[in-house]
Amino acid sequence: xxxxxxxxxxxxxxxxxxxxxxxxxxxxxxxxxxxxxxxxxxxxxxxxxxxxxxxxxxxxxxxxxxxxxxxxxxxxxxxxxxxxxxxxxxxxxxxxxxxxxxxxxxxxxxxxxxxxxxxxxxxxxxxxxxxxxxxxxxxxxxxxxxxxxxxxxxxxxxxxxxxxxxxxxxxxxxxxxxxxxxxxxxxxxxxxxxxxxxxxxxxxxxxxxxxxxxxxxxxxxxxxxxxxxxxxxxxxxxxxxxxxxxxxxxxxxxxxxxxxxxxxxxxxxxxxxxxxxxxxxxxxxxxxxxxxxxxxxxxxxxxxxxxxxxxxxxxxxxxxxxxxxxxxxxxxxxxxxxxxxxxxx
Amino acid sequence: xxxxxxxxxxxxxxxxxxxxxxxxxxxxxxxxxxxxxxxxxxxxxxxxxxxxxxxxxxxxxxxxxxxxxxxxxxxxxxxxxxxxxxxxxxxxxxxxxxxxxxxxxxxxxxxxxxxxxxxxxxxxxxxxxxxxxxxxxxxxxxxxxxxxxxxxxxxxxxxxxxxxxxxxxxxxxxxxxxxxxxxxxxxxxxxxxxxxxxxxxxxxxxxxxxxxxxxxxxxxxxxxxxxxxxxxxxxxxxxxxxxxxxxxxxxxxxxxxxxxxxxxxxxxxxxxxxxxxxxxxxxxxxxxxxxxxxx
Amino acid sequence: xxxxxxxxxxxxxxxxxxxxxxxxxxxxxxxxxxxxxxxxxxxxxxxxxxxxxxxxxxxxxxxxxxxxxxxxxxxxxxxxxxxxxxxxxxxxxxxxxxxxxxxxxxxxxxxxxxxxxxxxxxxxxxxxxxxxxxxxxxxxxxxxxxxxxxxxxxxxxxxxxxxxxxxxxxxxxxxxxxxxxxxxxxxxxxxxxxxxxxxxxxxxxxxxxxxxxxxxxxxxxxxxxxxxxxxxxxxxxxxxxxxxxxxxxxxxxxxxxxxxxxxxxxxxxxxxxxxxxxxxxxxxxxxxxxxxxxxxxxxxxxxxxxxxxxxx
Lengths: 345, 295, 312
What we know:
The structure holds three protein chains of three kinds.
Chain A (H helix, E strand, L loop, with lengths): L3 E10 L2 E11 L4 E5 L6 H9 L6 E6 L2 E2 L10 E4 L11 H11 L4 H15 L14 H14 L4 E5 L7 H18 L2 E6 L2 H7 L2 E6 L2 E6 L1 H6 L4 H6 L6 E4 L7 H5 L7 E5 L5 E2 L7 E10 L4 E6 L5 E6 L10 E5 L6 E4 L8
Parallel strand pairs in A: 3-8, 3-9, 6-7, 7-8
Antiparallel strand pairs in A: 1-2, 1-4, 4-5, 9-10, 11-12, 12-18, 13-17, 14-15, 14-17, 15-16
Helix pairs in contact in A: 2-3, 2-4, 3-4
Chain B lengths: L16 H28 L3 H6 L12 H8 L11 H31 L5 H13 L3 H13 L6 H25 L3 H9 L4 H12 L1 H17 L2 H6 L7 H10 L7 H22 L1 H9 L5
Helix pairs in contact in B: 1-13, 3-13, 4-7, 4-10, 4-12, 5-7, 7-10, 10-13, 10-14, 12-13
Chain C lengths: L25 H6 L1 H21 L16 H8 L1 H32 L6 H9 L6 H11 L6 H8 L15 H26 L3 H9 L4 H12 L1 H16 L3 H6 L11 H11 L3 H33 L3
Helix pairs in contact in C: 2-14, 3-14, 4-8, 4-11, 5-8, 6-8, 8-11, 11-14, 13-14
């Protein structure tokens, strides 16, 4: 088990810089999730930690040692891949034993470790099968098993759930969380799915265009996003953004803040509440209601033409094209600088 | 109209104009392509008197295998009268090491080019591909000099080396394209597991890629067996492959032409690639489509 | 988290640990030495050597006596070479046109969900598995004036029928065409069939819904869509044509006279038979230049497309 430190880590492909000076401290035993849109550099960063991608400059340290020039297999990391990357011609047992064999582990110890990992993941019955005779979920477990047997200091997961169907994804997510509780090993997990990030992470790292946008606990990111990008990225449906003139004339007073052209107000759909015109912060024409039973997504448009969504417990009982008023608790509104996107205190 | 009609498309009439044209075309074409094979077979089974009386298409009245025996055992090349068997064994001796060496080298090339690129590797590969199209004539003579300097000229090794060199572009391409379709994550997983260049190749990639090896073997076996140019230049008279000997037997100017022996010899030479072709079927098509550039 | 200073860097490993750039990825470089040697020494080195020595007066052995373009003067002054060029032009045009046309028609016929598709395909393609020597010798026999096609037609009753390509100075090259087509057309068919099968089946459905007749669909939709297949096939056939040698040796040996000589045979004969290396190398340099003229535009197009496709 080990901590992990990144200092000014950069990555260039030729003239193109894809990771721009990332600094990050990961504490021993922490579950860290890298999240961001595709092309943000999260997978590149993970591969640099794994030793599969050369580091252009900066340093990566696992524990107290800089591992920039240490081979992937000597870094004490294990990796679970998106496509599982199981060796198709080897049985489950051999797949799990392959890494240990390369490290010249005694046969008896290999056997013990493989069996123990199989036990944890409940794949003991499949040890003699080849991957093509396993279901997607079973393959995923084998891939995790192969990572466990190496007894790594750091586990790396590269979008491990994206090839599973929705139901299996939820289940496997739970199992990974349980595994972390049990092994207490440092884990780094890459995903573009913010639900996975919110549910699994001790700490979320939001990346965009090769830069860290914010680091924090899931609840931090949800409640106090550092900037408009993080605010929109975390939470579903996305946070609504308004300029001062999209809101009602009373909005400033109701929110207790001065509104001006260089400020944007962010309001999460789940925080908007149906209200009477006197307490309305924002009004919109009803365009579409998606009723999902437990809640409804109400799609509206302000008089200034901005689309926004409200998440309400029951659909509003008014005909289409009528005007609906929404209010919000003042402390749940977020304010951002319109130019820089940074959060205003 | 009370009859119940099937809901699907109307069944096509077997003798529609379309079918007559289509199958007519295909059958005529098939006859053109089959005739030479038929001619080879019937000629090789006739005696010379019968050949002189009839024409190339007339079937044998009296079947004889004597031409086959003579072609194999005692046909003359102008100098010697030892039959094709000498050439056959020479070809076998050339074929086996050439196939093994060329495929071994090319598969490692393809693997390195897919997973272990280094500075310049793509450049060398591009040059290699260009080499597939360059006429051999431009490289023949300098290769003679090089092989002579290495004291290999006019030996079996010279032909083996030349086959390895000129088989390399297409085989490397074949293996590179195959390995490029292997998920990169598999390779990364093996690296995290601590396997290096050779281990990943031998323990992960090789067992996975048996089909492509079969394709490569088909390609090389037919290509090398059918070679004439390299055999005649580099092997030396004592190691002439079967194709060269066949040509010497048939086109040697002395004596009376024995057409039946000639056709038996021709069939014997074509037998191995034909067997490979009929057994391998679709894999052969895959091989030549990939090996198309060999020309 | 935004501490940008690197003061807290833990114990660095000695810098020497980082391998020299040349030593990185060493096993791959070692494994690729045969490839590197082939590319540099044979494909580049030998070609350059031949081009350079084509400017010398080398006879049986290479000599560094440079004579400028003299070998080329002699080459294009030689009737054997000009005959070779003419022959390869005739052979090339006929082989290209007919193998593409017939190959495509066969592929279309096979693509009609016919019975015995595999049998037909096997029949059309088997000659491609054979050596050119075998092909040449079979056709030499079939075209034999006393027992072959000419005699058969005469036997039927057309006693004045003349079909003796092999003895004709004018038409001997067409014997090569017939044999070459027999061997190679099946291969064109296989490539075309693969191309046809690669076309989205929905295109056909769309054309049927629009009421376009099949022949029009082929002519105006399918063939344009198969452009890359046609170009690749063309390049492959063309580079095969330039190399044609074995077939000539087996079928006509260049005769009668010099009427069916080909450039590749010219090179071989002057190199090994007549001990006139300078001539042979000049001829091979001309062959190389011709191929490069075909190849470079194609490679340029091909690689540009690939590059555009990459790094998406």
